[in-house]
Amino acid sequence: MAHSITLIPGDGIGPEVSAAARSVIEAAGVAVDWDVQTAGLEVARAGGNPLPDRVIDSIRANRFGLKGPCGTPIGGGFRSVNVTLRQTLDLYANVRPIKSLPRVEERFDVDMVIVRENTEGLYAGLELMIMPGVAQSIKLTTERSSRRIAEFAFRYAERHGRPWVTMVHKANIMKISDGLALETTRKVAPLHPTIELREMIVDAAAMVMVRNPNSLGVLVAENLYGDILSDLGAGLVGGLGFVPGANIGDDAAVFEAVHGTAPDLAGKGIANPTAMIQSAVMMLHHLGEKTAADAIQKAILRQYDERKVITGDIGGNAGTTAFTAELCRLVREIRETSG
Ligand code: NAI
Does residue 101 contact residue 236 with C-beta atoms inside 8 Å? Predict the structure, then answer.
């Protein structure tokens, strides 16, 4: 039976990379009924709400979404489409595996995971102008969210055979907010005795990520630290074209690359779809389609190892379509030889 999945093509390079992900899923033999829902800048420009209720309703009904990056109009009273989507569906855990692919960025050999709290912190949207010339942003931290993101990180470490979780914070300065998150994580740790809890201040963590990223294991952090460190992680593995992500809640999950709409590449057919395709691989694992997910991952490894059809961001000259066609060919070949 076909899976019903909401597809949000998004803005900028979003439609190009999400079309690539669709083709690869099809090549892997997974039947999907795509419920295509537009959201983002283009919808806002046409006079609508950039995140219409129909999009939320569709994801609620299907429980799974694959999403291209969405822009948000600056000004005009709109909140970020991405933040609103995550908050409305309570997709509280943002999982971003940072893993090197062969022959992409040979200075580093990275294999770590970022688990970012997705609903609070400075992204809670609690901003106000106290008086002319004085603005305030409230960093919201609750015990409930701190506990569930810590729980998620420890369970993730257990399931994926990763021996430690590194809690990244700035509790030496933000003693109350980050202090609460840290204390809560310390209370969760003993419930997971096979996993070691390590703690690190965020500025030190940025340095360690460059010098010895794998020592961080599963890095768990509040929203802003997780956001910034994710892009740093992308830099270590070849750029934003590579890092996938999953926004996971108790009732729904939305899979999307770490990158944004890349306005500099949009419409040129040259974006690297790997991050989006690897997000689709994460989704296939959640759907129980392990064989298909493994075939795609194996094909990605082979394509980069051969380095014949690669995109411009890492020195190749293939466009998005040629890259995707080659990957689909490899996926089919792997399926035929293993079946
Ligand atoms: P960006 O991620 O779109 O681009 C940063 C740099 O990375 C650019 O040089 C771009 O060309 C490159 N890049 C990104 N994706 C790539 C890919 N697949 N292949 C090759 N190169 C790639 O970040 P930026 O410019 O800060 O944001 C642009 C817009 O995207 C903003 O409106 C922002 O709000 C939105 N955004 C949306 C996100 C989402 O929907 N989840 C996440 C991040 C940003």
Answer: no
Domain membership of residue 261 (yes or no) is yes
Active site residue: 170, 178, 304, 313, which one?
170
Domain total in the chain: 1
The verdict on residue 206 lying in a domain is no
Structure tokens at 322: 């040629």
Q: Which residues pair with 220 in a beta bridge?
A: 115, 167
What digits encode the pLDDT tens for the residues 220-274?
999 999 999 999 999 999 999 999 999 999 999 999 999 999 999 999 999 999 9
- 251 among known catalytic residues: no
For residue 282, give its domain range.
Answer: 1-89+252-339
Instruction: Please report whether residue 288 resides in a domain.
Output: yes
Contacts of 6 (CB under 8 A, 6+ apart): 34, 35, 37, 55, 58, 59, 62, 64, 65, 66, 254
Question: Which amino acids bring their CB within 6 angstroms of ligand 1?
Answer: 13, 17, 69-72, 82, 239-241, 256, 259-265, 271-272, 275, 313
Q: Is the pTM of this model over 0.90?
A: yes
